[in-house]
Amino acid sequence: MIGALTIARRETSALFSTPVGWIALTAFTFIGGFFFTAMLIGYFDAYSQSVLNPGQADQLSVNEWVIQPLFSNLGVIALFIVPAVTMRLIAEDRRQRSIELLLTSPVSSYEIALGKFLGGMGFALVMAASTLPFTWFLYTMGDPDTGIVISNYVSFVLMLGTLIAMGTFASSVTENQIVAFMISFAGGLFLWISNWLVQSMGDGAAKTGIEYLSMLKHAESMGKGLLHVQDVVYFLSFIGFFLFATAQRVEALRWR
Known about the structure:
By secondary structure, this protein is an all-alpha fold.
């Protein structure tokens, strides 16, 4: 475990010492701030127009107008940003042949996979923390539901973990960072839109299975403040699967 934490600390520091890391963080914060401002303006416009209709004003909720749409849009942004962050985690080591140092060190393949994942998660948590000023502003201006705010953050962090784990695996199967980016992005996009792909399908096991794969469906469920066990298990299962697959890939590299 100490080896994994050492690798994680090195990877997080490396991400913050490269232009890609800072560009990714800046892009995420800027685009997220743009969506937040647009949703807030829309909410205030709707509220001002409902002043003459008290019944309609009572139905306006900052949770439904701002918080839930904001985190849904942040998830879309993460689909593009996270692959750019994870594409170098292992592919860069393979390209520079520094992976041999890890493979010959007294660190297991599972510790290497876990360390790379935790390094990416360290960066992802900073991304998530960059949205805290948005929620702070909502608390100063109104009274958002704390339970919904917390559930959206939990959902978002779990989604980031899934994308980081997938990206780490994608980075382990190729030396080309662009290829790793495309694999990770395609996988994340499929999990995000899979629920849309079955809209025209008839009821059945296939439709149910594909719907279950939808990351958007589980994220939206948790975003409503409903922390169901099956939604948490969904994200943790994908994280565990991709960490296992990455460890197996690293182990295969030892015997090449």
